[in-house]
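HUMAN: Forgive my ignorance: could you write out one protein's sequence and backbone structure tokens?

ASSISTANT:
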Amino acid sequence: MVRIRLMGAFAHLAGARELHVRIDGKKEVDEILREVIPRYEEFHDRIIMINGHPARGDAEVEDTDEIKVMPVLSGG
């Protein structure tokens, strides 16, 4: 299963800090996150990590990978 660790607003929207999703073969990160996080597309800036390494939303993951996603906060 893909382990998904959610931070900040993403955890709030999904109602959990961690989710587990079973996928067959490979799947793009953005596709998975759109399925589990309401309003995911509204966050244009986000940090995605796959197995501890920076990644983009079009990166593919397999059933044994871990995704961590957090929104980018701005302010001053």
Observations:
- Residues 48 and 69 are 5 Å apart (CA to CA).
- The first strand starts at residue 2 and ends at 6.
